[in-house]
Amino acid sequence: MRPVLIGIDGGGSGSRAACLLPDGHRTEVTGGPANVSLREEALNNIKALLVALCTKAGLQREQLAEAKCHIGLAGVLEDQGAKDIAVALGLPKATMSDDQITTITGALADGDGIVVAIGTGSFLGRKQGEHIRRIGGWGLALGDEASGAWMGRRALSLALKSCDGLAPVTAFARRILDRFDGAAGVVRFSLRAAPSDYAALAPEILQAAGQGDDMALSILRDGVGYLQAGIAVLDDTGTCPVCLAGGLGPHYAGFLPHDLKERLIPAAGTALDGALLMAARNAEFDP
Amino acid sequence: MRPVLIGIDGGGSGSRAACLLPDGHRTEVTGGPANVSLREEALNNIKALLVALCTKAGLQREQLAEAKCHIGLAGVLEDQGAKDIAVALGLPKATMSDDQITTITGALADGDGIVVAIGTGSFLGRKQGEHIRRIGGWGLALGDEASGAWMGRRALSLALKSCDGLAPVTAFARRILDRFDGAAGVVRFSLRAAPSDYAALAPEILQAAGQGDDMALSILRDGVGYLQAGIAVLDDTGTCPVCLAGGLGPHYAGFLPHDLKERLIPAAGTALDGALLMAARNAEFDP
């Protein structure tokens, strides 16, 4: 009999789980943050997620223990105790990876290509068969170029530079300064801002860039420059298909140069789909 | 009779006080951090500083109360209660400013010119008689280009980019990666690093740049580019004298282009000298 498949996608801002029954019925639930660096919180949130999933899918406890499961967790590579986590969750046979692997697998499914994942953070990955090479994903303090957090921080930085006479005073720069009650308010905000706080500005930056605002456009141009350089490192032939993933990835499409735009392929699925796919593969390889 | 003059320079990493007696005798003491945003700590540290100063200079309590005093404090412009601070310190007649003003006054004394102040943070200021115009000083999250903290953060960021194939793998990049036990160690450091932690790398970056390391040189070049742009905004004639101040400022001299190097003038004094000078001016204007 085909097994029950379970996929879990746990990230710093929330987690999702999906269950695929042998009859093809799929159930999804969402829950709280699950970053391995906050281990207790992550464990508790994923346990709650599994309870919710079983209830919604009508799954018995013994079915859960026998299910084929893959868990993609932010930061799991840093943690030597991935196996411990699986055991603590009552899923001793579950396989685990970081959420970048499930994102790449979800986006490309069985195909090969480059995934440009842009949400609050960013990374690039190239998949060739079983081999995956990654670039970036180092976090906002030192990297995450082109990401939502990077875009937001850059917008505030450029707004301050416009006060100094070192950047153009565009309509968008004025709007930001007004919103934060001037330069001093922007600086106050920056003293406590988390990446997600900066990323909250991204939709407005994309909108302003779409309307032709020079400051917003310069942010997008720099972001695209980073993505181009990263794509070139991953594939110097300039022919590999490119998939824009993550909450913001697809929004970059309109700002890419023509040759890159022609290489775009749609994402096959999300990181959660990737986790389910990896659970299915584990099932096939099982003796 | 000429009054006793007292100058105080309070910053985020430490504070200094100086007293100039009518006979020309000068006494200096140093103490703990004094940033207005941590008001209680700042008050306590400056009170301790004043006690130490009186003891060392042989100053009586009544002489202190009658002294002419100027206090330069980091962040004081944000604080509406500057007068309250002076009263709380038992120096109700003291004048106050932020520490950028005392830095500029110390560096240029009675002269005019541009001050480029580079320590853990950075700012630029131009003084023309009584008028001072400033650029930068917004903090590391959104600015402080060319500063020690900015240099250190950039070095770590470039070291990670060298792992990604997006920056040259220089000897200095390898040294940094070894020191932090690889890319993951660099990222871990960045999650908790304060500006002063990044700035601690600055001396080594300057040394590597002096030895011709491409990565270190690229950091200095970008820093110089920012300083050049700022200087051009403050003086478009390209003739105004420029003074490199702060702990790192003078170290930039060797990396400046020839035309800018020719405009350099030595700093007349420190921010503490600036505070004493402002106290002396207050004394002269007193009825």
Automatic annotation (TrEMBL), chains A, B:
**Which superkingdom does the taxonomy of this entry point to?**
Bacteria
Q: Which Gene3D superfamilies match?
A: 3.30.420.40
Record-annotated ATPase BadF/BadG/BcrA/BcrD type domain positions: 6-248
What GO MF terms are annotated?
A: kinase activity
Q: Does the keyword Kinase apply?
A: yes
Please name the SUPFAM superfamilies in this protein's record.
Actin-like ATPase domain
User: Which UniProt keywords are present, listed alphabetically?
Assistant: Kinase, Transferase
Q: What is this protein called?
A: Glucosamine kinase
Query: Source organism lineage?
Result: Bacteria, Pseudomonadati, Pseudomonadota, Alphaproteobacteria, Rhodobacterales
